[in-house]
């Protein structure tokens, strides 16, 4: 990689190498995922802390103590409590559409900086909260941060990275999410032993928010964004810097051509609805939809609460969440090293099969132990076995639908529809994250152990969806993706010949 340029799978060749500048830049940008992951992981532990419940949700605390009359499945079923978790994702949904405009008009950098500011304000509001209203408002600000960062960071990473390692660098975003979740679980385990530990847990998110803001100020804008806003000389200089070579004429010209085509588009939202962008619209909608219906956020949001319900002690439930968080980080590393070598499809499919098997086993174990009335608990060996299968499920998600759910939508959209496509991806993701976060505890109360079979059925559907409809996109330059769709048995009828012809015309055979 570091000397002879990149030969792409469709015969395209760009000069350049993997520079330290690119790696450092992508690392800083991916910190937006660290904050998202921290907010994902922190709420489950906080909502299982007794001082927090006593102060803000005393009704839930009384239900938790009640051993007579309250079904074990229903002890945490409270809409206000779930709104504390889910309000972030509703705010992120709304913010994603504003972020798309910010990203296109002002660049990827300002969008990430604004996201960092929102994270900072939200963390401080939560850390100093004196009532439920202040908690919810803080979560809404955090949601604005999620909307802006999740919209801009994956695009930034895809545009900065060479195609040969685009998958690995883009998954840096998901890697940071998993590190954030693990960090949140560790902090919750430590702060749970202090009376006002929940304030530390919620407020400490301000520290990485400051780092993101400062780091973003030090970043460079992507060549794609500079060209898009008419700064051509600066864009070519930046492309030479990130590729580590002066010979970038071919790649630069392709970026200019793509930008000129994009500039003719008056409205990216109506444009992505055109027939020739049907594959992009489909995957930017259904991948985030299916990602949330894996049921992963049952574990990520509510791991300590879920483990408490299943009979783990308070410390044990928090430690179990730490274990699953650690598995999440390690398994994401598997994806980093495999995604550009073996491709996207194989990870999607293997992960789907492993998740399905794990969910069935977990559902059967809980059903046999708790039945329909929710009475029972796991013995030590049984609890350990249950934790093993939950970890297998988390691992499967972490090397498949977790990182690829952000990577694939960000890399399949050409420049003229990229902000709209990513905004749709984030909006759908946040909408269903909000819905699942809001209704999970109620669903657990009513569906009981059948909830795991519910999510397992969706995993089966989405695995079939990938098997038949997603072509392999590894090593394909972002602006040449039309060639992939044209060669696919289903999508080829949507791609006009003139689009493919233009791509082929600009392609250059490897020497």
TrEMBL record:
SUPFAM superfamilies: MFS general substrate transporter (SSF103473). The chain crosses the membrane at residues 18-38, 80-100, 112-130, 136-157, 169-191, 283-312, 318-339, 346-366, 386-408, 420-443, 449-470. It is found in: Membrane. It holds the Pfam family Sugar_tr. Keywords: Membrane, Sugar transport, Symport, Transmembrane, Transmembrane helix, Transport. It comes from the Eukaryota. This is Sugar transport protein 9. It comes from Stylosanthes scabra. The gene is STP9_2.
């Amino acid at each position: 990689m570091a000397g002879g340029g990149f030969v792409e799978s469709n015969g395209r060749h760009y000069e350049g190498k993997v520079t330290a500048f690119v790696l450092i830049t992508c690392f800083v940008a991916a910190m937006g995922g660290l904050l998202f992951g921290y907010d994902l992981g922190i709420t489950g532990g906080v909502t299982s802390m007794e001082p927090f419940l006593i102060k803000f949700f005393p009704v839930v605390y009384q239900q938790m103590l009640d051993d007579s009359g309250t079904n074990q499945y229903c002890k945490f079923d409270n809409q206000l409590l779930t709104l504390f978790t889910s309000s972030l994702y509703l705010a992120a949904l709304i913010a994603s559409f504003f972020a798309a405009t910010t990203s296109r008009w002002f660049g990827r950098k300002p969008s990430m900086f604004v996201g960092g500011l929102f994270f900072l304000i939200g963390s401080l509001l939560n850390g100093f909260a004196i009532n439920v209203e202040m908690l919810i408002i803080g979560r809404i600000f955090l949601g604005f941060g999620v909307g802006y960062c999740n919209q801009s960071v994956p695009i930034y990473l895809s545009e900065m990275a060479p195609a040969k390692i685009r998958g690995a660098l883009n998954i840096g975003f998901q890697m940071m999410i998993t590190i954030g979740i693990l960090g949140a679980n560790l902090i919750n385990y430590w702060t749970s032993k202090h009376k006002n530990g929940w304030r530390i847990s919620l407020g400490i998110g301000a520290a990485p928010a400051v780092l993101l803001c400062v780091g973003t100020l030090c970043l460079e804008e992507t060549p794609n964004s500079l060209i898009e806003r008419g700064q051509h000389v600066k864009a070519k200089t930046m492309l030479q810097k990130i590729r580590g070579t002066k010979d970038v004429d071919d790649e630069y010209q392709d970026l200019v051509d793509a930008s000129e085509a994009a500039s003719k588009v008056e409205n990216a939202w109506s444009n992505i609805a055109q027939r020739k962008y049907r594959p992009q619209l489909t995957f930017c909608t259904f991948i985030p939809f299916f990602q949330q219906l894996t049921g992963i956020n049952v574990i990520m949001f509510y791991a300590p609460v879920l483990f408490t319900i299943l009979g783990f002690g308070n410390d044990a439930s928090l430690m179990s969440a730490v274990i699953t968080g650690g598995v999440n980080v390690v398994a994401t590393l598997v994806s980093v090293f495999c995604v550009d070598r073996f491709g996207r499809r194989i990870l999607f499919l293997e992960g789907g099969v492993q998740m399905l098997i794990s969910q069935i086993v977990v559902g059967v174990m809980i059903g046999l132990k708790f039945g329909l009335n929710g009475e029972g608990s796991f013995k030590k060996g049984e609890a350990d076995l249950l934790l093993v299968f939950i970890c297998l499920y988390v691992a499967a998600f972490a090397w498949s639908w977790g990182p690829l759910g952000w990577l694939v939508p960000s890399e399949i959209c050409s420049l003229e529809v990229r902000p709209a496509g990513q905004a749709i991806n984030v909006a759908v993701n946040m909408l269903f994250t909000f819905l699942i976060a809001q209704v999970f505890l109620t669903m657990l109360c009513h569906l009981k152990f059948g909830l795991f079979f519910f999510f397992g059925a969706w995993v089966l559907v989405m695995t079939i969806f990938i098997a038949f409809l997603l072509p392999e996109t590894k090593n394909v330059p972002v602006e040449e993706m039309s060639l992939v769709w044209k060669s696919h048995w289903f999508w080829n009828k949507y791609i006009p010949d003139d689009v493919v012809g233009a791509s082929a015309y600009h392609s250059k055979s490897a020497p």
